[in-house]
Amino acid sequence: xxxLACCTLxxxxxxxxxxxxxxxxxxxxxxxxxxxxxxxxxxxxxLGYVIGKNAGPFFAARSQSIRKxxxxxxxxxxxxxxxxxxxxxxLANLEAEIATLKSEAQHEARAETQxxxxxxxxxxxxxxxxxxxxxxSAAKAARMELKRxxxxxxxxxxxxxxxSRMTPDVExxxxxxxxxxxx
Length: 183
Known about the structure:
By secondary structure, the chain is mainly alpha-helical. It contains 3 helices and no strands.
């Protein structure tokens, strides 16, 4: 309502100025200049009123919006710093984890090497024991074969000696001695 009254008053002043100008068409140029200044003052006052009335809330809203955006930007910066700190912490932990994994891998490699060495030594001992058993078995078989061969040779040699010493007279004497033993 107040705004409507101000606008009406403003239009009346403008209309009065326009009427006065139309009636005084022949008056001096200075009087015309006065009305121009009056019109300018009214226009400037009206613009000042409108700007003053609307500019305050506009700038207040704009200022509040800027503050809100600054708070949001600050929160975003803090979140980014927190994430950067988390990433830095993870990187620091990552280096420690890598060092731990390397240490564990080296320990496991040493343990595996030791286990393989022990397993190899056990396998070598088994192979040596088996080889010794095979050698002993082969030696025993060779001794038995040698004894058998020696016995065969001894029998053959004895047979040859007996045959060479056996004459028909000796044979007769042996047979008669055998028969005497039987009776």
